[in-house]
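Researcher: Good morning. I'm working through a list of sequences from a screen, and I'd like to move beyond sequence-only analysis. For each chain I'm collecting a predicted structure so we can compare shapes side by side. This is the next one on the list. No need for commentary yet; just the structure.
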Amino acid sequence: MYSHFFTCRLILLLSAIFLISSCSPQFNLKTVDRTSDSRTLMGLFTFKLPEGDNWYDLKSSPTSMSFSKAVEAKDASLTAAVYVKKTEHSFSSEKQFLNAIKSSRARNVVPANFNLLKHDENIDATLGPFCTKYAVKVNRRERERSNGVDRQLIERRGFTCLHPKRADLIITIEYTTHSRFNYVRREILLEGENFIRSLIFL
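Model: Good morning. C-alpha cells for this chain:
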C-alpha cells in the first residue's frame, strides 16, 4: 500500500539533493518568502518555515512543500519537506500504525548503490497521537567509493502521523542531510529539528 508513497518521496529526495549540490544562478531557485513565518497545507496543519539563512523553495504541489538550504561548505546540504498521503486503511492501535509505516519505509528507504546503516522508528507523542518518529541513515556502497566516487552519507529524520481529524490522511514532516564526511554542523541540524517539531494540526 505504501510502496508508491515512499518511492515518490525517495525520488523527491534525490531530486532535491541534485538541486542543492548544483545550487547556482542558472537554476533560478526562489528564496523562501518570509512575509509570514509559517505556512498551511491543505487546511490540515501549519508548520514554521525553516530557520536560518539561505533557504530556497523547491517545487511544491497541492499535497507537499519542500525547501533546500545552500550550505557554504560543499561537503554538506540540507532539505526540509512536508507531504500528505491518502490511506484506505484504518488503524485500531498505535502499534498497528507503527508496524505498517515502519515496514513500508524499510522496503523503500534505501537508494540504489547505498547500504542501510540505521533505521530507528518508534511511537512518539511530540506532535500528537498516532505518530512515529524515525531516523534513517544510508551510505554509498564500498564498491562505488573504490571506483573514485566520494563517500556519501544521507540521513533522514522526521515524524509520520495520522491526522487526528482525518483518519484517511497520513502526514510526514522531515529533514534530510547529505554529507561526504559524516559531519554536519550542529546549528544546521538544529534548523532541521526545529522544523519537524513545528507542525500543528488544525
